[in-house]
Write a structure and sequence with these properties.
2 domains, Rossmann fold, 14 strands, 496 residues
């Protein structure tokens, strides 16, 4: 009888749980106190981990999950620089830069960024928390962020969230609520976005200025994805990839000895000059290019890419990144190279084909990031929920129409003399290539009158350059210096 009673209770408990919605608190916060060491000096800070509503007509339509780090061992803390951090996707949580780049804790990985067990985190001695407070933001359906049902049990229209302009609009609204909630209006403010986050922060600079009257001091684009480049005709979209091919081939020692024996930073300017002055003009001629010129370009393309002239000609001088990842080592080790970081190697079922079976680098990264972020939020920051942490959330279809973010950023800069730009890219990133990022920066201001407020920094790693320890230190220091230079001195007016 006792066993039967116990079983009955268990069944009732299971029935009760299964009848419930896995709900969440739309407005919550857990505050923890910490101390770490950054650049050899002790730094005390609080971590505010929680959710904050997104309001529409005085009703909450979504709950945004965030983690906010604020240094506490300083005076006038609400006047310190504040960095809003986003990742990309679209549909990616803020996990990547949160626990691998600028935050106070980073992944337990080796010096080149490869996974180590046991999974977990360790102190980040290079975090920018010594010079700026940071809030890591998870857009709707990423991390623990969710839409909220109305009184009739219906979710809001997905079009309010899932598109370039919708995303920018609602995040600008939410950021205003955050700044007011935490009394950060006096702070110099910065936006940092990785990958698609580059498009997002470019658009946010203008939207915050126009609709929220919030003026930004700096926009940092990390390995930015620019749909203006991706959706352009072949000469630009394809031609800007060539210098990345050179970098990846150099890393894998596939270039001719004349190039291979030089340092990477000696080789890349040559490849860039070829791309701009010869390859792109040749691609503009399409099928009407003369045979002599076509062969000459193919020969030089092979020289700078590490693949054969025959393969270049078979692709009509338009070699896709996917084909390159498969082709570069096809006739040597037979391995593929990574998309987001071409230092990583993969093994396909067959050596034939035009595209790798999987992304070698992303598979490796998910080893490290998924266990670490779940453990870190629960055990270090004490934020506990039964919700699933969405590394990648359901945000598609994504509306890419009317993308004017690049032009908007130019206008925001023109109207705000305080606003500066930093672009950071890894040379081995094959998804958002470093030279395409340079091209984007060059196109922001066609007049050239604001180019002294823009800076590009490259690193010997991939999309997440910060996973490599040497570049983690260098890239954080570059941000630290950018913040120092773009935070005006007391009494320095915003004027031309």
């Amino acid at each position: 009888m006792k066993k039967l009673f116990t079983l009955t209770l268990a069944l009732l408990f299971v029935s009760f749980i299964s009848a419930q919605d896995r709900s969440f608190d739309a407005d919550s916060v857990v505050v923890t106190k910490h101390t770490t060491t950054i650049k050899g000096k002790s730094v005390s800070y609080t971590a505010n981990c929680g959710t904050l509503p997104l309001w529409e007509d005085d009703k909450a339509v979504a709950s945004i999950f965030y983690t906010y780090y604020q240094r506490t061992d300083v005076k006038d803390g609400n006047k310190r620089p504040l960095v809003f951090s986003f990742n990309g996707g679209p549909g990616s949580a803020s996990v990547w830069m949160h626990i691998a780049y600028t935050g106070p804790q980073i992944l337990n990985v080796d010096d080149e960024g490869y996974p180590l067990q046991p999974y977990g985190v360790k102190s980040n001695p290079h975090s920018i928390l010594d010079v700026a407070d940071i809030v890591f933001i998870n857009p709707v359906n990423t991390g623990y962020s969710r839409m909220i049902k109305d009184k009739d049990g219906k979710y809001p229209d997905r079009k309010k969230f899932f598109g370039i302009n919708a995303d920018i609009k609602y995040l600008a609204e939410w950021m205003t609520t955050f700044v007011s909630r935490y009394n950060r209006w006096p702070s110099p403010k910065y936006l940092i976005g990785e990958s698609y986050g580059g498009t997002r922060v470019a658009g946010l600079a203008k939207a915050l200025q126009d609709s929220q009257w919030m003026y930004i001091n700096g926009v940092i684009m990390v390995s930015p994805a620019d749909y203006k480049v991706f959706n352009s005709d072949t000469p630009i979209q394809s031609g800007t990839n060539l210098p990345y091919f050179t970098a990846a081939a150099w890393h894998h020692k596939m270039l001719p000895s004349q190039l291979q024996n030089k340092d990477l930073l000696e080789v890349l300017p040559e490849a860039e000059a070829f791309a701009i002055n010869e390859l792109i003009p040749a691609l503009t001629k399409g099928g009407f290019i003369g045979e002599t010129e076509k062969n000459r370009i193919a020969e030089k393309y092979a020289y700078y890419s590490g693949i054969s002239k025959k393969a270049v000609l078979q692709n009509n001088l338009d070699v896709s990144t996917g084909f390159f990842w498969k082709e570069l080592l096809r006739n040597t080790t037979g391995q593929t190279i990574g998309r987001l970081d071409s230092r990583y190697l993969g093994i396909d079922e067959k050596e034939t084909g035009d595209y790798p079976d999987y992304n070698a680098e992303l598979t490796s990264w998910l080893h490290s990031f998924t266990p670490a972020i779940n453990f870190y939020l629960r055990e270090h920051l004490n934020y506990k929920t039964d919700l699933k942490y969405n590394m990648f959330g359901d945000v598609h279809p994504w509306d890419r129409r009317n993308n004017n973010t690049r032009e908007g950023l130019r206008k925001a800069m023109a109207q705000n003399p305080y606003l500066n730009i930093l672009v950071q890219s890894g040379y081995y990133d094959g998804a958002t290539t470093y030279f395409a990022a340079k091209y984007t920066m060059w196109q922001i201001d066609p007049s050239g009158k604001m180019k002294d407020r823009m800076d590009f920094r490259g690193y010997r790693s991939g999309h997440m350059m910060y996973l490599r320890n040497e570049d983690l230190q260098k890239s954080n220091e570059d941000i630290r210096e950018f913040i120092r230079k773009s935070t005006p001195k007391a009494g320095e007016s915003a004027k031309y």
